[in-house]
């Protein structure tokens, strides 16, 4: 799906700003039919939850309404007019005056409405957007809704980050010609010094197509005709981690000599490949350093913010990170474009977080239900996951920064039914994008002995909390069990392996000379312990600390104003561990840290394994 852009044939108006806002009201069943009642206004883009000093709005489960007036420029006569919402979390309904023009389920992917037939250029209209925050077994991510004793609807879900909702990304009005370009796919390869670009263009009508490649200075370096073909760039400048180089693909629809539509898609020339236990970018082994992140800041929740975008990337650079995972949902497109321009490598994750009922056990004393069954996560869930996958890959396929898709975070890959659930999704992802490796982040309960899906994927991403949720404060035992666990995966699957999550909650200002959980020193020692293990394992291709910054979570006794595993606080101040990481990562340039501690840890031979230790985690979370 093309991002709306202003070109010589297309105009673009940003609709961000303050919109009228109201929570659904049973007395006003069709709120789009007039001006929204009340006097609330909400910022777009922003999640709405933390904007108002009103617990009822924050906790509301169901629809909220946004509204503003929009004028279609008089000059757009003869053009198609579209509305584009970069996201409505988790479901959106769009009305132009009284008419429903679009409905979309899935909170982290864009959707559009062609509204040409509902108005005339020069007209002003009432744009009303309903947004629903409900999560069920038919949504990705999943959740469930219950009704409290006093009749309030309550949402529960299987991930810890707070269920922020609303219009957290931009809204656009744009024009495009009647005969237009509807999609572009760019796949790049390299032979010697020559860049080889396979392109394909979809158009609304059968019309001649011309494509031209411009280098960063705007010089044409290659061209071709037709809706698909191969372009070559001599003496190509590659897109490399840390050294981004972007070309522009200018696609034009022609009517004789006239250009009837034009669209410019930036792209980078690079290759990605998994070979043996190596992850190769441009044929060179790449070692991931960085974080799992969140879209999360105070007040705006998951609202996209360019100031935080710039600052977060500055901090990534400062700390020596070369990559991050879009845990646990695809981020705003601006984030990927920024990564493209600045050479940061991205593992693009879907919103399939929490396909795991196992984590519900423990404290409640009630045994967990099977995750995959007709009554729990079933064909409907799988269909929602498949649709989400289509939308993510369609949106993000041309970003050079995206080197791998993460299909899910911590699914119950150890449970019966996991293979039946995931095998068709893996197949679908490979059909949609045969070029990028696939991974999923494996939960602690999924071990190399009981995991049912790892062989379907290219890279093993492992989430482990030895020294935090288990062996809390006992880094010596943690080190032994972590090493045994990771070596088991390496030996069982012979695939590249990376640590996709490891982290310890830390209160800035809390200090200790002992291994004291929550202290800044403990977070440092915890990371050091993990790093010693990683450096001893061949086939290890990367480390993503959990998390880049502290983030807001749902209410619960395990969190103090959110998850505190950030290496930076929520307002982006470094904890001591930021300096530990900076010392380790700076100057690596994608190479694996050298092993300066080659001493092997003695592995326990008493029969206990990481698998045996896992149940302790259930009670701990
Ligand atoms: C992992 C989840 C992540 C959590 C983290 C934690 O993947 O989303 O925030 O645990 O508990 O299981 O900090």
Automatic annotation (TrEMBL):
InterPro entries the UniProt entry points to: Beta-gal/glucu_dom_sf, Galactose-bd-like_sf, GH, Glyco_hydro_2, Glyco_hydro_2_AS, Glyco_hydro_2_cat, Glyco_hydro_2_CS, Glyco_hydro_2_N
Domain Glycosyl hydrolases family 2 sugar binding: 14-177
Record region (Disordered): 588-621
Domain Glycoside hydrolase family 2 immunoglobulin-like beta-sandwich, first and last residues per copy: 191-270
Enzyme Commission identifier(s): 3.2.1.31
UniProt cross-references to Gene3D superfamilies, sorted A to Z: Galactose-binding domain-like, Glycosidases, Immunoglobulins
Alphabetical UniProt keywords: Glycosidase, Hydrolase
Enzyme class, first EC level, given as a word: hydrolase
GO molecular function: beta-glucuronidase activity
Domain Glycoside hydrolase family 2 catalytic: 272-588
Family (UniProt): Belongs to the glycosyl hydrolase 2 family.
Protein name: Beta-glucuronidase
Lineage: Bacteria, Bacillati, Actinomycetota, Actinomycetes, Micrococcales
């Amino acid at each position: 799906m093309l991002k709306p852009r202003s070109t010589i044939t297309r105009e673009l108006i940003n609709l961000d700003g303050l919109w009228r806002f109201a929570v659904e009201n049973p007395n006003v069943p069709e709120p789009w039919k007039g001006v929204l009642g009340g006097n609330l206004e909400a910022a777009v883009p922003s999640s709405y939850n933390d904007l108002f000093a009103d617990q009822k709005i924050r906790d509301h489960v169901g629809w909220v309404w946004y509204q503003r007036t929009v004028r279609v420029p008089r000059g757009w006569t003869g053009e198609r007019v579209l509305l584009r919402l970069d996201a409505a979390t988790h479901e959106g309904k769009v009305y132009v005056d009284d008419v429903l023009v679009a409905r979309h389920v899935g909170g982290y992917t864009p959707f559009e409405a062609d509204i040409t037939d509902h108005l005339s250029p020069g007209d002003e209209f009432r744009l009303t957007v309903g947004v629903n925050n409900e999560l069920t077994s038919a949504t990705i991510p999943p959740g469930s809704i219950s009704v409290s004793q006093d009749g309030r609807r309550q949402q529960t879900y299987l991930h810890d980050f707070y269920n922020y909702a609303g219009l957290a990304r931009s809204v656009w009005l744009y024009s495009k010609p009647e005969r237009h370009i509807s999609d572009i796919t760019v796949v790049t390869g390299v032979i010697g010094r020559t860049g080889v670009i396979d392109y394909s263009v979809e158009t609304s009508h059968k019309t001649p197509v011309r494509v031209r490649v411009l280098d960063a200075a705007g010089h044409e370096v290659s061209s071709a005709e037709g809706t698909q073909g191969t372009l070559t760039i001599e003496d190509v400048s590659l897109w490399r981690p840390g050294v981004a180089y972007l070309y522009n693909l200018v696609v034009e629809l022609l009517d004789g000599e006239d250009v009837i539509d034009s669209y410019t898609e930036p792209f980078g020339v690079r290759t990605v490949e998994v070979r043996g236990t190596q992850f190769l970018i441009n044929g060179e082994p790449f070692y991931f350093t960085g974080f799992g992140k969140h879209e999360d800041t105070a007040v705006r929740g998951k609202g996209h913010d360019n100031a935080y975008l710039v600052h977060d990337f500055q901090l990534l650079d400062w700390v020596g990170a070369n990559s991050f995972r879009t845990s646990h949902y695809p981020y705003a497109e601006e984030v990927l474009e920024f990564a493209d321009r600045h050479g940061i490598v991205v593992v693009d994750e879907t919103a399939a977080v929490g396909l795991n009922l196992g984590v519900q056990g423990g404290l409640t004393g009630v045994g967990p239900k099977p995750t995959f069954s007709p009554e729990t996560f079933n064909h409907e869930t799988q269909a929602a996951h498949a649709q989400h996958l289509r939308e993510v890959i369609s949106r993000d396929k041309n970003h050079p920064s995206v080197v791998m898709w993460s299909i899910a975070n911590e699914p119950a890959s150890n449970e019966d039914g996991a293979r039946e659930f995931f095998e068709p999704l893996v197949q679908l992802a490979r059909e949609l994008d045969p070029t990028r490796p696939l991974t999923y982040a494996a939960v602690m309960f999924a071990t190399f002995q009981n995991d049912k899906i790892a062989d379907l994927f290219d890279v093993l991403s492992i989430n482990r909390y030895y020294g935090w949720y288990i062996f809390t404060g006992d880094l010596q035992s943690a080190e032994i069990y972590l090493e045994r666990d990771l070596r088991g995966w390496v030996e069982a699957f012979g695939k590249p392996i990376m640590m996709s999550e490891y982290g310890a909650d830390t209160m800035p200002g809390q200090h200790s000379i002992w291994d004291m959980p929550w202290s800044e020193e403990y977070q440092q020692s915890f990371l050091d312990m993990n790093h010693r293990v990683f450096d001893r394992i061949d086939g290890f291709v990367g480390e993503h600390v959990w998390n880049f910054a502290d983030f807001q979570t749902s209410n619960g006794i395990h969190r103090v104003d959110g998850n505190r595993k950030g290496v930076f606080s929520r307002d982006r101040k470094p904890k001591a561990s930021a300096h530990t990481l900076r010392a380790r990562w700076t100057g690596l340039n994608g190479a694996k840290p050298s092993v300066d501690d080659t001493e092997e840890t003695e592995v326990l031979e008493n029969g206990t394994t990481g698998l045996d230790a896992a149940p302790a985690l259930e009670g701990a979370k």
